[in-house]
Design a protein that fits this description.
Number of helices: 12
Number of domains: 2
CATH topology of the largest domain: Rossmann fold
Strand order of the largest sheet: 3-2-1-4-5-6-7-8
Radius of gyration: 21 Å
Strand content: 15-25%
Structural class: alpha/beta
Helix content: 40-55%
CATH architecture of the largest domain: 3-Layer(aba) Sandwich
Length: 297
């Protein structure tokens, strides 16, 4: 059994949808859960309080947080809530998100800023204080939330896609900085029919992409059983797969001394574009040290 007895988890955006499903399952498996969300129900009650009460009614331990992810003070307060109530923090699931869909040519500055703030800045504002708490204990699990909208593109979601790819970039750097402290960071790109995506999916698709189908992988990544860091996983309707940034074999032109002409690129452009012999890199340093580009120095 994967269990979280004695551990504390913070889940942002946990008042509904996928985040709620994460929080409920982590609590069911023994975790103390900080349920963070600023949203309210139609009758004005905080959604985080509703989920907190659900967890407690089922015999679990939870506390609600109504702090915003878009400020560092909000992130610090969430972590402090975990410390004050449960004595520490072991797990962070960055799940909070919003949509402000519009085609790029018609998008307003506030629509851009709001999405970048909640998703990308929010990941910074909550993760930094969480890592500062995890580092002294030499243990932690962090899960970020990306999206296929950023990885592959989705019409009308330039703000959302840009923010989500920024999160992957954040993870790629953190995996190098915090693994030595026993902290593992990974990213998931889930898919689900939730209040945030209401009306986006056709009915025959929406009925197959329930929020709960995303829970098992995140639970595993949050556990001591998980040995990996710096990975991206895509999931939908019970399908789980690792996704990765790769480069093709490519071509080396010139000797690192002479100039290279645009016509040479034109003549070998097909080889440059071919990715039938792909390679994955763990750091940008691996790309810089490839083959001839450095051997001529």
């Amino acid at each position: 059994m994967i269990d979280f007895q004695g551990q504390t988890a913070l889940v942002t955006g946990a008042g509904a949808g996928i985040g709620r499903a994460y929080a409920l399952e982590l609590a069911r498996r023994g975790a103390n859960v900080v349920v963070n969300d600023i949203g309210r129900t139609r009758d004005g009650q905080f959604c985080a309080d509703v989920v907190k009460d659900e967890i407690r009614a089922a015999g679990g331990e939870a506390v609600a947080s109504h702090d915003s992810v878009v400020t560092l003070s909000g992130g610090r307060q969430m972590v402090q809530t975990a410390v004050d109530r449960f004595g520490g923090l072991d797990i962070l699931v960055n799940n909070a998100g919003i949509l402000r869909d519009r085609t790029f040519m018609k998008m307003t500055e506030p629509e851009w800023d709001e999405v970048i703030s909640v998703h990308l800045k929010g990941a910074f504002c909550v993760t930094q204080p969480a890592l500062q708490q995890m580092k002294p204990q030499q243990y932690g699990r962090v899960v970020f939330t990306a999206s296929t909208s950023g990885m592959y593109g989705n019409f009308g979601q330039s703000n959302y896609g840009a923010a989500k790819m920024g999160i992957i970039g954040l993870m790629n750097t953190l995996k190098l900085e915090v693994t030595r402290y026993g902290i593992l960071v990974n990213t998931v790109a889930p898919n689900a029919d939730t209040g945030m995506t209401e009306g986006v999916f056709p009915e025959d698709v929406a009925c197959r992409i329930k929020p709960g189908f995303n829970v098992p992988l995140v639970v595993y990544l949050c556990s001591r059983h998980n040995p990996v860091s710096g990975r991206v996983f895509t999931m939908s309707a019970g399908w789980f797969a690792r996704s990765a940034m790769v480069s093709g074999k490519g071509v080396c032109i010139g000797d690192t001394r002479r100039d290279i002409a645009a016509e040479e690129i034109r003549d070998r452009f097909h080889e440059i574009c071919t990715i039938d012999q792909v390679r994955e890199f763990d750091t940008c340093g691996e790309i810089y040290s490839l083959g001839r580009p450095l051997t001529g120095r």
